[in-house]
Amino acid sequence: MKYLLLSTIALGLCCAPMAAEAQAQGQSQSNLNLGISTHHINANGAGSREELSGGGFMLTYVFGDVGPVEMALRSNFSILSLKEQNDINVIGTDLGLIFGQNLSRQGFKWYLGGGAYYELREHDTLHLKDSLTGIQLTSGVGYNWRKVALDLWLSARSVGAYEIDNRNVENVLTGGIALSVRF
Questions:
Q1: For domain 2-182, which architecture applies?
Q2: Which of 84, 91, 112, 141 has the highest count of CB atoms within 10 angstroms of its CB?
Q3: How confident is the model at residue 17, as a pLDDT?
């Protein structure tokens, strides 16, 4: 998790001057988005269902056009709790490469991509810690105004990491809504 969190911070620090320079040159696009988000995870299986919810931060940097689409690096950092048990807390992050339309320009946007996730789960009562890692596929839609962006995304995660205590997990979906400032 340290590496994903550090890479997210480094991405923000490296990209902020480039985004400011692009705006200073009068370009009509915003390459950096930083915002707050809701975050939900549902892990479903035969006879088991796990729901986590919470909030977090979202950072997106758009590199530019790659053929007919734009390419961006996106990271989420979230703090979640298990709905059924308040004594289980989850700190998570994901980092992914997304491709889509209008990621840096005003108007309706859509994107698809993939990446990796990391979760650290702490059970306060039992003093247990688990870490989960894996890959995920992401899709999303949203709208960019001049200085504000709204995103709605859904990701499908690899299930292996969620099969703790011999649970049979069939699918893991995560998603949320983010409201960001565009630089």
A1: Beta Barrel (2.40)
A2: 91
A3: 45
